[in-house]
């Protein structure tokens, strides 16, 4: 009988404040969609870091004849065979080095033509203008500075470059976008909480006569509060369900179909469906608990029960 009363009161409350209930559902849906999106964005950045940091190389570019005339680092002339052998020997002795690949001038010229063949500059370049290099695979990409310290400024070395620095700029941008999304999410959560509190208070005010009678006949505080808390929880749960739908649809159409980024951007290792599905229970639980707790604390002061 009590459960039937609570359920009937939930329906009455939701219908009486239909406009505010709809506003609660929309605000909760948007805020939790952003919440889930920010979590997925963090997973995506972590996945990309693990994928790309494992593939980055440190490159030691060697001086050629052109560099000897124009680059201060190559003032002593082009790299010699003995210097190349010494560099390779020293690399082989370093514990941080996993593998070393040598790229000749002809190979560098071929790779440049493959990547930038349409560039006007490519037509004027010759193989002897390209730089020989050693491409070093590190066991730990964070140990780039060990290579830079050992070889930067050495005779025959024009420069030491770390591809990780380029990726750090990209991931810094992605992390900045993620924090911006979290800031918007926090703002939306505040708006949602304010709407929930106002909706509960309006509902309680409109039924103040019924709640007064219930207090007079000895109804417990929780029994009086239960319908209002349940209303907020139901509205929040609907919003959470909509947020889950947003995330599933976004993953489906943006990555798998529609935009199909997984096919167009083969170089990016996108998160899988398991990452999305593991976030849905958290979003649904938040959508239930957040409105229920907000309603509980709002009613404690308002109803004074």
Automatic annotation (TrEMBL):
InterPro entries referenced in this protein's UniProt entry, alphabetically: ABC3_permease_C (IPR003838), FtsX (IPR004513), FtsX_actino (IPR047929), FtsX_ECD (IPR040690)
TM stretches of this protein: 21-41, 179-200, 236-255, 276-299
Protein name: Cell division protein FtsX
Subunit structure: Forms a membrane-associated complex with FtsE.
Membrane topology reported for the UniProt record: Multi-pass membrane protein
Origin species: Streptomyces vulcanius
Job of this protein: Part of the ABC transporter FtsEX involved in cellular division.
Entry similarity comment: Belongs to the ABC-4 integral membrane protein family. FtsX subfamily.
Keyword GTP-binding: no
Domain FtsX extracellular, chain residue ranges per copy: 56-160
Keyword Glycoprotein: no
Alphabetic keyword roster: Cell cycle, Cell division, Cell membrane, Membrane, Transmembrane, Transmembrane helix
Lineage start: Bacteria, Bacillati, Actinomycetota, Actinomycetes, Kitasatosporales
Annotated compartments: Cell membrane
Pfam families: FtsX, FtsX_ECD
Start and end residues of each ABC3 transporter permease C-terminal domain: 183-301
């Amino acid at each position: 009988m009590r459960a039937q009363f609570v359920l009937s009161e939930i329906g009455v409350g939701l219908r009486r404040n239909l406009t505010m209930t709809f506003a609660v559902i929309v605000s909760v849906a948007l805020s939790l969609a952003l919440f889930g999106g920010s979590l997925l964005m963090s997973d995506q950045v972590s996945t990309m870091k693990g994928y790309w940091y494992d593939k980055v190389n440190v490159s030691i570019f060697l001086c050629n004849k052109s560099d000897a005339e124009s680059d201060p680092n190559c003032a002593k002339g082009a790299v010699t065979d003995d210097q190349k052998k010494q560099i390779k020997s020293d690399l082989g002795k370093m514990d941080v080095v996993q593998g070393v690949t040598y790229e000749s001038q002809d190979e560098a010229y071929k790779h440049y033509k493959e990547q930038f063949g349409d560039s006007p500059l490519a037509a004027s370049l010759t193989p002897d203008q390209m730089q020989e290099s050693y491409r070093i695979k590190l066991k730990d990409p964070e140990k780039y500075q060990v290579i830079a310290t050992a070889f930067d400024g050495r005779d025959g070395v024009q420069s030491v470059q770390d591809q990780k620095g380029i990726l750090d700029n990209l991931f810094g941008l992605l992390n900045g976008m993620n924090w911006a999304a979290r800031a918007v999410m926090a703002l939306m959560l505040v708006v949602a909480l304010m709407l929930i509190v106002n909706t509960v208070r309006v509902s309680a005010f409109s039924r103040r006569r019924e709640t007064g009678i219930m207090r007079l006949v000895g109804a417990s505080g929780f029994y009086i509060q239960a319908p209002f808390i349940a209303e907020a929880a139901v509205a929040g749960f609907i919003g959470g369900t909509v947020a889950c739908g947003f995330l599933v649809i976004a993953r489906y159409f943006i990555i798998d179909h529609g935009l199909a980024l997984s096919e167009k951007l083969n170089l990016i290792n996108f998160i899988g469906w398991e990452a999305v599905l593991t976030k849905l229970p958290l979003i649904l639980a938040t959508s239930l608990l957040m409105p229920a707790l907000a309603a509980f604390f709002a009613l404690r002061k308002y109803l004074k029960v």
